[in-house]
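Q: I'm building a small set of examples for a reading group on sequence design. Run inverse folding on the following structure and report the sequence directly after it, with nothing in between.
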């Protein structure tokens, strides 16, 4: 019990550490720079929410989101853009920054997040755009998604641009490759128009229309350099460092530039698909060993830590609720019923595995039933990660069941001491004998030469999983199955004897 309490304490301490945010000394009127770098994944959304709320609580007047990304998950980008757009009484700025360690791009999901800010600033040599959602095909290559997803993202891009007074046509052209955008001069005034608007203006003889430049050609997604974004009114300024940015936007205040902590990096690693697959594999194998071992020991502690890590970290990302926990606990209960009560492995065990798998899949996403194509893509990816973990766990359990009796590492999981008698005295079989005689009889039984059983045939009394009871020559022994589990009342043969370990095989 002390080990269990210690394990829970350590896990909860780690989760608390991961959820902590380093204090920032600056007070009211300060300017916070929050980085959005790398693939847009759920842990970035949690980091942005926590950091932004911390900035608001400390009275910050401006938040600068430093964006440097090729893109990522559509759902996470929509969550981030929605959150930034909901911030009140604070100025939000998207800064596409260049530097020795940056990529200098705000593409795809990054462009969506940038448009959710009130102002956009870019450094020299950076670019923004190409925001059409894509999916990963069976061959591993990127391919355009369906019109339903494109339409949803296109509408959101236009809504964000309209809200923050960014050029709506530019936002649409970043998503819709069929949209043509022209820069023209109408009666001496420069404007951005699409091909339909251009045609209508040119048909009106009262207008003096001069085509200046084709900003976005049909069949191509729009991407803009820093200079082009400034020219067409998407970017407010071009700034290569924070000092220059504050001067050009006339912002005053102390600057607090955040850097993701070690805890944030740990969260990003442990919420990745690969690591969570390993944790699922480890948790299921340890759960199997714990159920098949007497008492509560190390396998149970490891299983708890594995699943607490999976569900706990995903809970920090806001993707775990009561449904996932209920499905998981019911799944574990069904597996226990299958192992302890029902022989073999049937519908109950399969149902338990399915429920556990669903709980793990749902814990990696913020929706239950996918509706949009990009939700189906995320759901499919999560099913793949979880399925790999479950399949590998089943394979590992099969290997343990087959090889366990031969592996020394599992010797500690086997009770090797034969217990005779009861806590209140000698075994009732020896009632009426003196204490000395009972002790001598028990000693003789403990020292019985099990080697004489080699080659003997008998039958099982209980299910061997792999340990259980079998009867030889009218006497009951504790035996171990060599290979697959053996059901009760099946003929078996002793094939090996190692000390007090009797290993049998089915001969039915």
């Amino acid at each position: 019990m002390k080990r269990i309490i210690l394990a829970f304490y350590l896990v909860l301490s780690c989760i608390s550490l991961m959820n902590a945010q380093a204090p920032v000394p600056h007070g009211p009127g300060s300017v916070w720079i929050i980085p959005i770098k790398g693939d847009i994944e759920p842990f970035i959304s949690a980091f942005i929410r926590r950091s932004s709320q911390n900035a608001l609580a400390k009275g910050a007047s401006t938040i600068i989101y430093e964006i440097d990304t090729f893109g990522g998950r559509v759902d996470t980008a929509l969550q981030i853009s929605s959150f930034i757009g909901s911030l009140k009484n604070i100025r939000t700025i998207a800064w596409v920054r260049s530097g020795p360690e940056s990529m200098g791009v705000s593409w795809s999901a990054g462009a969506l997040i940038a448009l959710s800010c009130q102002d956009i600033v870019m450094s020299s040599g950076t670019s923004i755009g190409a925001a059409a959602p894509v999916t990963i095909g069976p061959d591993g290559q990127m391919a355009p998604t369906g019109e339903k997803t494109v339409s949803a993202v296109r509408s959101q891009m236009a809504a964000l641009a309209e809200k923050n007074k960014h050029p709506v046509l530019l936002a649409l052209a970043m998503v819709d490759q069929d949209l043509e955008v022209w820069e023209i001069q109408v009666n001496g005034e420069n404007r951005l128009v699409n091909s339909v608007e251009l045609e209508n203006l040119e048909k009106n003889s009262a207008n003096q229309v001069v085509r200046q430049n084709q900003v976005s050609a049909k069949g191509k997604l729009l991407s803009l350099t820093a200079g082009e974004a400034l020219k067409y009114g998407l970017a407010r300024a071009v700034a290569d460092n924070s000092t220059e940015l504050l001067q050009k936007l006339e912002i005053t205040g102390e600057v607090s530039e955040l850097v993701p902590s070690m805890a944030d990096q740990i969260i990003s690693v442990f919420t990745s698909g690969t690591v969570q697959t390993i944790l699922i594999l480890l948790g299921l194998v340890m759960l199997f060993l714990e159920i098949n071992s007497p008492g509560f020991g190390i396998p149970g502690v490891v299983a708890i830590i594995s699943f607490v890590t999976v569900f706990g970290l995903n809970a920090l990302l806001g993707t775990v609720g009561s449904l996932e926990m209920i499905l998981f606990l019911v799944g574990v209960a069904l597996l226990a019923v299958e192992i302890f009560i029902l022989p073999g492995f049937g519908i109950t065990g399969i149902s338990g595995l399915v429920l556990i798998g669903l709980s793990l899949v749902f814990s990696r996403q913020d929706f239950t039933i996918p509706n949009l194509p990009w939700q189906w893509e995320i759901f499919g990816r999560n099913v793949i990660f979880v399925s790999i973990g479950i399949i590998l766990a089943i394979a590992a359990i099969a290997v343990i069941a087959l090889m366990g009796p031969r592996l020394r590492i599992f010797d500690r999981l086997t009770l090797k001491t034969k217990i005779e008698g009861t806590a209140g005295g000698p075994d009732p079989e020896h009632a009426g004998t003196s204490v000395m005689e009972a002790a001598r009889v028990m000693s003789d039984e403990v020292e019985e030469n099990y080697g004489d059983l080699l080659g003997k045939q008998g039958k099982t009394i209980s299910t061997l999983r792999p340990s259980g009871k079998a009867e030889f020559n009218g006497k009951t022994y504790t035996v171990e199955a060599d290979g697959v589990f053996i059901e009760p009342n099946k003929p078996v043969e002793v094939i090996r004897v190692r000390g007090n370990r009797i290993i049998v095989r089915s001969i039915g």
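The domain at 449-506 is CATH 2.40.50.140 (OB fold (Dihydrolipoamide Acetyltransferase, E2P)).
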